[in-house]
Amino acid sequence: MASEDVKASESAVSTIVNLAEEAKLAREGVKAPGTALLNICKSLFAGGVAGGVSRTAVAPLERLKILLQVQNPHSIKYNGTIQGLKYIWRTEGLRGMFKGNGTNCARIVPNSAVKFFSYEEASKGILWFYRRQTGNDDAQLTPLLRLGAGACAGIIAMSATYPMDMVRGRLTVQTDKSPRQYRGIAHALSTVLKEEGPRALYKGWLPSVIGVIPYVGLNFAVYESLKDWLLKTKPFGLVEDNELGVATRLACGAAAGTFGQTVAYPLDVIRRRMQMVGWKDAASVVTGDGRGKTALEYTGMVDAFRKTVRHEGFGALYKGLVPNSVKVIPSIAIAFVTYEMVKDVLRVETRISD
């Protein structure tokens, strides 16, 4: 009996010591390993939900954008946003409006999760280095440093999920009249690997890397900088109790998305066209000489830029920009706000603004 009392006392002491240690770590700003891991999982989950919700909300516009980017200029089917959406609805119905969205979500959910989490971690690392370099422990991230953190996050997330993006592009472009059909994500991946080799899964990767730096970097930098400015200046009564409302955060996200995508859009067009290289069954895709429904021939990113501008003019680099702008404004805004709201619900202590 005495032995059991001793064991119980030792257990109680051990519990008290553990709780005291966790309290000490909390006071010092250090999370216990279990808590840190749980917060990482919650952060990844919040990023994934944000990506899935935001992309599904604008799926029809996403598909139209890709179709506009790669269509044959001598056989125009999609002539503008409204006409293009009506044409897809008339010829393919509701399923056509959301064609490729399953693949898109399968790509964007992990991409978004990795992107938001990578941004948080990159921000912490850059801020730590910046404070050491300046000797100021109270220094905060500047817009340029946020741009760097966002660029790092974009490159990591895009590289990790690029094969899914490549396959998504092909699934989106194919129609019911294509001679051969990709039956789904797995079938498309296996077919491309078998017929074109593993390198084909990364066609267009270079312009994607170059494009993701201003696009994702500016998204995060503009969003966070706008929020900081609003919180500091408190204009137009937009700030209440040092918090921004949902509508204000949506507006910040919309501004960030519009600015970032306008800068990076030509690279997105070139990336999409390079992804179609080697696929003879693409529907009305553009070739270097302007003919349609044959394999695209580009030797690289510079060659793709040169041939596109030479045969179709500079404006071809902005094909699909209007539906993309209409898509990006709500998409980026919804992604940022959804991410922060999900983290609030899950009670994750750190948000991207912190």
UniProtKB/TrEMBL annotation:
<protein>
    <recommendedName>
        <fullName>Mitochondrial carrier protein</fullName>
    </recommendedName>
</protein>
<keyword id="KW-0999">Mitochondrion inner membrane</keyword>
<dbReference type="Pfam" id="PF00153">
    <property type="entry name" value="Mito_carr"/>
</dbReference>
<dbReference type="InterPro" id="IPR023395">
    <property type="entry name" value="MCP_dom_sf"/>
</dbReference>
<comment type="similarity">
    <text>Belongs to the mitochondrial carrier (TC 2.A.29) family.</text>
</comment>
<dbReference type="GO" id="GO:0015867">
    <property type="term" value="P:ATP transport"/>
</dbReference>
<keyword id="KW-0496">Mitochondrion</keyword>
<feature type="repeat" description="Solcar">
    <location>
        <begin position="141"/>
        <end position="229"/>
    </location>
</feature>
<dbReference type="GO" id="GO:0005347">
    <property type="term" value="F:ATP transmembrane transporter activity"/>
</dbReference>
<keyword id="KW-0677">Repeat</keyword>
<keyword id="KW-1133">Transmembrane helix</keyword>
<dbReference type="InterPro" id="IPR002067">
    <property type="entry name" value="MCP"/>
</dbReference>
<keyword id="KW-0813">Transport</keyword>
<keyword id="KW-0812">Transmembrane</keyword>
<feature type="repeat" description="Solcar">
    <location>
        <begin position="244"/>
        <end position="345"/>
    </location>
</feature>
<dbReference type="GO" id="GO:0015866">
    <property type="term" value="P:ADP transport"/>
</dbReference>
<dbReference type="GO" id="GO:0005743">
    <property type="term" value="C:mitochondrial inner membrane"/>
</dbReference>
<keyword id="KW-0472">Membrane</keyword>
<dbReference type="InterPro" id="IPR018108">
    <property type="entry name" value="MCP_transmembrane"/>
</dbReference>
<feature type="repeat" description="Solcar">
    <location>
        <begin position="38"/>
        <end position="125"/>
    </location>
</feature>
